[in-house]
Amino acid sequence: MAGIKAVTKKPVVGVGRFTSPDTMVSLIRRGILDMIGATRPSIADPFLPEKIEEGRLDDIRECIGCNICVSSHFQMTNLRCTQNPTMGEEWRKGWHPEAIPPKGSEDAVLVVGAGPAGLECARALGQRGYRVTLAERAKRLGGRVSREASLPGLREWLRVRDWRLGQLHKLPNVEVYPGSDLSPADVLQVGARRVVLATGARWRADGVGRVNHLPVPIEPGVAVITPDDVIDGCAIDGPVFVFDDDHYYMGSVIAEKLAMAGLAVTLATPAPEIAAFTAATLELRRIAQRLEALKVRMITHHRLARATADEVQLVHVHTDRVLALAASTIVMVTARLPEDQLYQALAEAPEKLEAAGIKSVTRIGDCLAPGAIFHAVYAGHRYARELDAPQTENAFKRERIFLAR
Predict the structure, then answer these.
(1) What integer best gives the mean pLDDT of the chain?
(2) Which of these, 103, 232, 270, 302, has the minimum number of CB atoms within 10 Å of its CB?
(3) What are the CB-based long-range contacts (under 8 Å, 24+) for 35-38?
(4) Full DSSP string of 63-100
(5) For the chain, which domains are there?
């Protein structure tokens, strides 16, 4: 940008996912830019300029750079944003990014789980005026966001947690209880009329995913772990084989983390590209370059077929050719299973729910359907916005084109 300013007297506009008002002001004052272009930051917070002008810097939903918004273009889907769940729904559902209808009843709400779904649900319910109790089993709030942010390159994703915690602290009608592992009996005694379960999901260790519909045959004694185990800091022996049937970011960042620890790593996927979905988020090339620099062996078009004590056997998805590789540890990055034990226990006792005055028990986010973080945030916001709201026949408005003769 500085070089462009040196060769022209015309105003210069620059982009680069500027999220910090201090950085923006600094660029203007130093003469590097005349105007700030902020497309993705304005998707995350359409009222970014207004909040800066009013000095409400803590209220800015900062873009995390995940490029889910960009992926909407390449996937030809409705525009979405991890930070701003109303994005793409302003006209379709009438969701305003800042305003939300007041509560529709005096029902108290218990939200179990303070991950991305639970935090957004509690925040939006609190904004509506409901009395909310948010309970989290762990002492650290944020759920998967806090955990995944410890992986290479994902630190900024903590903004999903931190912005919501900042907003919750401003709401006197929301109480937050970390380190609270609620049992079914505890839920019945809280006194809430509505119960929302946002208890997340865990990675499978049996290899079931997109390509393997049945568990992969694995000999006893083979070290098989999941991304959850890697994040928890379990001991890992190399060489390591990472099987990525998730096709988003997790397989590559796990491989990167292990390679940075000095382990020999092979990353294999049945897809035609490593981290295939990241082609839509414009990250694929950089991911491949990063893994190449770390000497991670990358194999595409292969599924994991079986594992023995000292090797894994891969099969080409088109030709059925077998490839054997040495491996001491296998990391399964395949599918996830909902952590819905609390929901199942409550669902089995409807008479106890009725006696406790509980009107509904609802699963949201990964506890209902494991997905990306933006799915979880959207699910939490949707529950909060639609609670006690009039039900409509159509889920959202549709544009209908009429051609005149």
Answers:
(1) 95
(2) 232
(3) 35/11, 37/13
(4) -----HHHHHHHHT-----SS-TTTT-TTTT---SS--
(5) 2-75 (no CATH), 109-200+339-386 (3.40.50.720), 204-336 (3.50.50.60)
Tens digits of per-residue pLDDT, 41-98?
999 999 999 999 999 999 999 999 999 999 999 998 889 999 999 999 998 899 999 9
Go through 164-188 and write b for each residue having 16 or more CB atoms within 10 A of its CB, e for each that does not.
bbebbeebeebebeeebebebeebb
User: Cβ distance 60 to 18 under 8 Å?
Assistant: no
Residue written as token pair 């303070």: 114
Helix (H) / strand (E) element for 139: namely none
Q: Report whether 366 contacts 336 (CB < 8 A).
A: yes
User: How far is C-alpha 141 from the chain's CA centre?
Assistant: 15
- Report yes or no: 263 and 254 within 8 Å, Cβ to Cβ: no
Cβ atoms 276, 247 nearer than 8 A: yes
Return d(Cα 51, Cα 130) in angstroms, integer: 25
Total residue count of the chain as it appears in this document: 405
